[in-house]
User: Fold this.
Amino acid sequence: MFAEKVIELLKEAERNPVTIDPFNDDKIRQILEEMQTLFRMNMNDANATTENKSLWTTVQVRHSALERNKRCLLAYLYSRMAKIKTLRWEFGAILPADVRELLSDDEYEWFTKYSMNLASYMRSLGQDIGYNGIDLTENLKPPKSLYIEVLCMADYGKLELEDGDVILLKKNSRHFLPTSECQTLIRQGILKQIS
Amino acid sequence: MENSGYLSISDILVTNEKIPCKFLHDLPKMGFLDPSASEDDLKAGTNVEIPLWLAESLHSRRPPLVAVDLPKIYKDSYREILNADACTVDMHKLSQYFYEFGCYIAKHDIKGEVSNTLINTFRQRFRMLLSASVSTDSVGAIQPLSVSERLQAAAAANTEKALSEWLQRGDSILTTANMVANHRKRKRAEMEMH
Assistant:
């Protein structure tokens, strides 16, 4: 049957709607091969239709299968693109190595470009009224207090605060920090707010 | 819109469901479409179940290559069950994409009965959906729901949870981003497996 490999690919992607899977280039290669075969068979049969008119119907069936394969591949890439966008907003501009290896080279290039576009857009915001940009990935929830108490979830290392103090973020240590300085770390899962 | 988009994965999975069709022309070399046939060619007049995407595409050709028939779940016998009491039906087993698939099928139903059944079914099952979204026994309540019903139940449960949190605290603590948290969880699960 036609276009079965590509459905396997999409079902795999659909099983994990919230995280990104490794780029499945092996399966994509197989699908492209299937499409090549279909295309070649169609070329032969289309040339032979002068003698045998009834071949047209077969050509049309194969053509539908080709279009279907194309649609599914595009949908796969598109759904990954939406996830890669989310990566930028949730992990930040620099991806951890274990996330980076899930993307193909082309996807990583797209990520870098998207990241740069977003950064230059955020820098341009409010320039006409004398500010130099605003980080849109911050303050996703209205801040309720200037300082919050946080618990450190991972060994992160040193963190320099805006007032010049350096603190050491070690696993299971507790800190009382300005909200503005730790909210990115909270989103990245290194700190956890405790109330 | 989400469901009819060219790039929508859920629409692709819906159009992968099988539908019975009758071929109106001979198809040379396409014998493999019919699992019971032994010849290389598919003869006009053969009845075969093919995926919806292929049927739609062949039906829209001039002249149409296939005549589309109704899948059995949308036929009289099942329609009677659905009209009598739709809540007894386990959609997950019977037809995972009942509503979405039905929207495609309704176009091929001249009498227009399929579309009525769809609305009727949803109207009857709505209460079931509502109770599934507030139920604590989530596995048992969610089991008989179709894919889109499950999504709606999950969305309703999330909204309910967010509302009650907001009512209690009036304040929300900062949390880890969704994808980051899920990535961690998965990695931990993989580590434990090895």
